[in-house]
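Weekly structure sync, notes
Attendees: PL (lead), two postdocs, one rotation student
Agenda item 3: pending single-chain targets
PL asked that the sequence for the first pending target be pasted directly into the notes so everyone works from the same version. It is reproduced below exactly as submitted, 67 residues in total.
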Amino acid sequence: MARIKMKTVKALNEKDLYDRMQQTRGELRKLKTEAAKGTLRKESGKMKPLRRDIARILTRLSELKKQ
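Predicted structure, written out during the meeting:
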């Protein structure tokens, strides 16, 4: 999954944001499991961008709730 820009996040509605967040969390969970096993090599740099994407989505969901 590619990195998500804030411009893209703002264009999505609430349902799409929740779906995207679940996909991203699932991918992050998979990478963390591989890291714990010790089988993660090339993809170790993908964890930080995924955490940032989740933070962007949560920020946007928080903004939507305040409106």
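Discussion points:
- The chain is about 75% helix and 0% strand.
- The mean pLDDT is 91.
Action: rotation student to compare against the earlier draft before next sync.
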